[in-house]
Amino acid sequence: MEGFHSWDHAGLALAHAVRTPWLDGVFAAVTWLGSLAVLLPLVLLLWWRRRSDRNAAFVALALIGASALGHMVKLVAARPRPDLFPPLIAMPEDWSFPSAHAAQVTAFALAWLLRPGTAPDRTAIVVLFAAVTAVFASRLYLQVHFPSDVVAGALLATLWVLLLRRLPAW
Asked: 30 Cβ partners below 8 Å, 6+ apart?
């Protein structure tokens, strides 16, 4: 456990060390790409426009399931938010582990790329990878998650989407 503790602290120290007013604004905006406030309306719009398309349902179920699982794990783990450096946004009121933003953006991106009957194109891969990476970085830069929270959120979502994709319905 000590290895994770020092790794988490080093990650937050690095994020704090590169702070600039310009990056403060960029990451405060970018972090919203992992929020249900952005992703859920996007998924619902996709579903509404393609109600007969099971791919829209797959992406919606991937996002909603990953979010629900992440929030359930938060309740069990009950890990406090980091307090090594001042956060740059209002500290979320829920627990830290795992990062729901990381889980949600990972689930959305991976589900989009693994939609049944489709093959992802390189542009989609690059754009989604960049968005996911930016959200991960934003959670650390803003000092609202430990690095292990972000990794755990991404892993949880990846496992969920891969499990969901293996179901016979898809």
From this structure: 134, 135, 137, 138
Q: What is the pLDDT of residues 54-69, one digit of tens each?
A: 788 899 999 999 999 9
Q: Provide the token pair at 134.
A: 């930016």
Q: How many CB atoms lie within 10 A of CB 161?
A: 26
Which are the contacts of 86, defined by CB distance < 8 A and separation ≥ 6?
Answer: 143
Residues in contact with 156: Cβ distance below 8 Å, sequence separation at least 6, in sequence order: 66, 69, 70, 73, 98, 103
The token pair at 33 is: 């790409």
Average pLDDT on 122-133 reads 96
CA gap 153, 97 in Å, rounded: 8
Q: Tens digits of per-residue pLDDT, 9-27?
A: 999 999 999 999 999 999 9
Joined together, the tokens standing for residue 20 give 């600039």
* E runs forming strands in the chain: none
For residue 45, the 8-state DSSP code is: H
